[in-house]
Write a structure and sequence with these properties.
Two copies of one chain form a homodimer. In chain A, about 75% of the residues lie in helices and about 0% in strands. In chain A, helix 4 packs parallel to helix 7. The first copy, chain A, is elongated. The N and C termini of chain A lie far apart (about 50 Å). Chains A and B meet through helix 1, helix 6, helix 7, helix 8 and helix 9 of A and helix 1, helix 6, helix 7, helix 8 and helix 9 of B.
Chain lengths: ~190, ~190
Amino acid sequence: MKRNTKQIIIEKGAEIINLKGFHHTGIQEILDAADVPKGSFYNYFKSKDDFGLQVIDYYVEQFAMLLDKTIKDSTLSPTEKMKKVLLFFMEFYKSKNYAYGCPIGNLSQEMGDLSPVFSEKLRNAGDAMVDSCLVLLEEAQKTGEISPQLNLRETTYFIISSWHGALMRMKVEKSLAPLENHYRYVFDYILRP
Amino acid sequence: MKRNTKQIIIEKGAEIINLKGFHHTGIQEILDAADVPKGSFYNYFKSKDDFGLQVIDYYVEQFAMLLDKTIKDSTLSPTEKMKKVLLFFMEFYKSKNYAYGCPIGNLSQEMGDLSPVFSEKLRNAGDAMVDSCLVLLEEAQKTGEISPQLNLRETTYFIISSWHGALMRMKVEKSLAPLENHYRYVFDYILRP
């Protein structure tokens, strides 16, 4: 029960932060959206910063779970699995009217120059995202679906980093075109035999 | 003289906005940084939003001027010109301790979901950046430095969008590694014969 309330605060709060930015969002606003009584915020979080840092942990965990589930799908080849993950997010953003973007990317952008604590957390979060995806590229290299020449860590890093750039553009273009363009270049030019 | 003061306000203001975000920056803070008397802000800008929109125009213009200067350098091949532009920005960010990022990307991230006026301006700004770079890719395709198969607009769009993602990561990593990785993938996998 307690854990559930905390999760609701994180999810609803992250939604507002993604839309408005971390500094531009008040704690009261988060509690209102989560429909949680005033004052209960500090039962779960030491401070607004602590809340922000836990949002990052939560999304890294969610991303790892999604990847893990896809990796275990034995009906798909490694490349098909990667495509499935990207298409899943495209569907998600379409359903959200191309808003929000990725909490890790958004907070990197906003907090990178302002808080060493956030920077370190976000650096680790980015690395964790790379780790989660790396397994798929390793599989793909073993099956020959992608070039044996590719440095897998650098490649994964580039795919995720350019995905964050595409999300940035999606937010002003209000269409899937930037993500579709990213998908095309990743699979036509980088992830190929 | 008047124009000069305006330009100083834009440059100093953009620096703070790039560091702290648009909403998180006050007009007084901008005027203090620009060393301009209180009240003079409204001689140049109708509102804070108007200021933000003019920051975008200013940077699009600066970018176009930089590109134009590089395009005219007849000692370099088209691909060398593109490399020169990216290396110029890498030097710039190194000198700024990997802070700031790009005003167009930062504001797309922050304002994309909040203001249709900013979104439209930023969409056009992104398109203008693509237009500025497109000439170089056209040249490179003519000289055979890059593949005749490449769709030049989509390719330019992908390079700029993934550059913005790399800048996002640079801000938390506090190193050039994300930009160097971007450079490598762009030239090793996309911009080649």
